[in-house]
Amino acid sequence: EASESLNFLEQIIEEDLAAGLPKEKLRFRFPPEPNGYLHIGHAASICLNFGLGEKYKAPVNLRFDDTNPAKEEQEYVDAIKHDISWLGFQWAEECYSSDYFQQLYDWAVQLIKNDKAYVDGQSAAAMAEQKGTPTTPGVASPHRDQSVEMNLDLFERMKNGEFEPGKYVLRAKIDMASSNMLMRDPILYRILNKAHHRTGNDWCIYPMYDWAHGESDYIEQVSHSLCTLEFKMHRELYDWFLDQIYDPSLLRPKQREFARRNMSYTVMSKRKLLQLVQDKVVSGWNDPRMPTISGLRRRGYTPESIRKFSEVSGISKRDSVTDVSLLEFCIREDLNKTATRVMGVLDPVKLVISNYPADKVEMLAMENNPEDPNSGTHEVPFSRELYIEREDFKEEAGNKFFRLTLGNEVRLKSAYIIKGESMVKDASGKITEIHCTAELDSRSGSGTEASQRRVKGTLHWVSIAHAIKAEVREYDRLFLEEAPDAHEDKDFMEFINPNSLRVIKEAYLEPFLAGATLDDKFQFQRLGYFTLDTDSTSDHLVFNKTVGLRDSWAK
Ligand code: ATP
Ligand code: MG
Ligand code: MG
Q1: Does the chain have fewer CB atoms within 10 Å around its N or its C terminus?
Q2: Which atom of ligand 1 lies closest to the CA of 230?
Q3: Number of domains into which the chain is organized
Q4: Does ipTM exceed 0.90?
Q5: SS3 (DSSP) at 54
Q6: Both 335 and 348 in a single domain?
Q7: What domain range includes position 52?
């Protein structure tokens, strides 16, 4: 294998294997905090960790990092599991940091006994003050040299609920002069009188992230704990904590960091996504405009497209922003290969074919997908009165307009060549009907010479008598600004696009779409890719536009 085809994390793993780590000891984890829904940034981490699992045939745990009951909920746990499965990945074990609360507590007691931890009763402000600055050493807490007996007693009483939140914390005794501020006696435990979604009221002290995370990796014997760059400085602490409890006969986990995935025209932190939900800027975590996995799914994105996006954006050592048009490119590519071609008219105007019999209905065969020879056909009814898109006709048009005008020809998709003859307008001058004649031997696929004749434009259409009505929702970017949360002087909420949702109350679709299900993907010919929305019911169909056929944002 050529080493240039490996990303830098794979290179680290290969080096570890070469240095003697047995391949069967490789183990990875994806560690979400259940305080929100997964987003496209998480998908990078999911695809990375589960991708390594597939590559090395190694187990990947799903670990819920549930150490902060103030923000965590079962709803999020369920949604996270659903999203990972939907992406097509299977975890080896479902783990929870909260399952390790007793073990973590026991280890904390061991740290106290080894004079490596102490209970501090100062205010948060006093402790922050004593921390110092990166260029000046900190000042030791007056409690730092308290006796082991006193620390054990206070810690047990913290656990037993004898104190109010904030009264005491347990701190590691490391180095108040360290150049790494995180090493200046970090907090291991704080008192929180909050019920936990899994442990209920069993605990009123909760471990901090740094204490829980590495030790959880160790308990699960994770070989490579891959996290995002903001944890780089935490690695020293991760290693220090492991040093305190590590049994050399067991595997020692290794933390390594990679860059977060950011994407243009959106925000990606759960806190900000939650604010969009709470402020009702969007209808929920799964609003089709959200960068969440559930929003993308509802919008019509496929697991394959999200996995492809992760693959092509790659894993990096440095933070960067991926253009959202790359994600759109990935879904377009996938749907082009898989979506069923149908016709729907979003802004209808009536078209009457004056030489076509009024009582005649033909069932025309429409190719389901020209990209897939095995996809077959479905039938579309054709009759004398049709709807076409209002913008596909112009009374007066220049010679660059290849759609319908008076006196010129276009082909109706999979049907006849027609020629515009006249039109009807209402009192306000709005066109209400277009009359045309069809070349009756030109039907596509009929084998005649006229059926082969090529004309400049092809229009989509639906038969008025057979069309079904549906609501169609079209989306634009949720933010008008490429990097909405990168402004120091402005809040990201100031860049919300007020026109990110366009609702078409009454679109007309070919009747085949009455049988659409949530999993079906369609290309509405000439308009884009669409899928049924979860709001849809049998008497009120609702379709979402996933993406247009072309990148309308390309410069
Ligand atoms: P947020 O800031 O959105 O709340 P988080 O990092 O706090 O993100 P976690 O639930 O802790 O969210 O994330 C689970 C895993 O996914 C972590 O390993 C985290 O590093 C990774 N992750 C989160 N966001 C991204 C991102 N934008 N790009 C790549 N990985 C991410
Ligand atoms: Mg986190
Ligand atoms: Mg977070």
Answers
A1: C
A2: 20
A3: 3
A4: yes
A5: helix
A6: no
A7: 3-258
